[in-house]
Write a structure and sequence with these properties.
single chain; 179 residues; mainly alpha; 3-stranded antiparallel sheet; 4 helices; 3 strands; 9% strand; elongated
Length: 179
């Protein structure tokens, strides 16, 4: 039971920080900018980055507009799956633990928006990239961490397999030479 508590403590700490930051920044944007209004602290920055109050009824980065109910259901399923499977992740698989914690925080942030105001508030606008928010960035970064972790684990396993094979060849080579 103590192990499950520690597992969930890590999950909820990371997800909680992301969720709090996401909800706070969205509320700040909604309270300070009218829908569609843009704020740029320095004019030279405008072509590269700006804050714009935007609404999204689709998924991250504006994909699948007007499918809010579908994405609400998916978010609930994802949150449930993460909560259920998280304790089963091996202790040494930190990339997966961090990735899922980030994805939980992001999914919860956008889910709360969908359930309370009927859409997701987006506000980070970089270049010509679609407008996004902290939750979207967390989900995407979580996917990147997951992929990087899988790549590192794969390299580690291949290196261990090659070392084991090298050791086997060396042992058999000595046996053949000893006969």
């Amino acid at each position: 039971m103590k192990k499950h508590t520690q597992n969930y403590l890590m999950l909820f700490t990371i997800a909680g920080v992301i969720l709090a930051l996401d909800l706070w920044t969205k509320e700040l944007v909604r309270s300070q900018l009218a829908f569609g209004e843009t704020w740029v602290p320095w004019e030279w920055l405008a072509p590269y980055a700006r804050i714009v109050h935007w609404q999204n009824t689709g998924a991250a980065f504006g994909i699948g507009q007007n499918l809010s109910m579908l994405f609400t259901i998916l978010a609930i399923i994802i949150v449930g799956a993460i909560l259920y499977f998280f304790p089963q992740i091996p202790d040494g698989d930190w990339p997966l633990r961090i990735a899922l914690s980030m994805q939980l925080g992001g999914a919860m942030g956008n889910l709360i928006d969908r359930l309370t105001i009927g859409h997701v508030t987006d506000f980070i606008s970089v270049g010509t990239f679609p407008v996004f928010n902290i939750a979207d960035a967390s989900i995407s970064t979580g996917v990147a961490v997951l992929l990087l972790g899988m790549w590192i684990m794969d390299r580690k396993e291949k290196k261990q397999a090659a070392s084991a094979l090298q050791g086997e060849i060396h042992i058999h080579g000595e046996d053949v030479q000893g006969d």
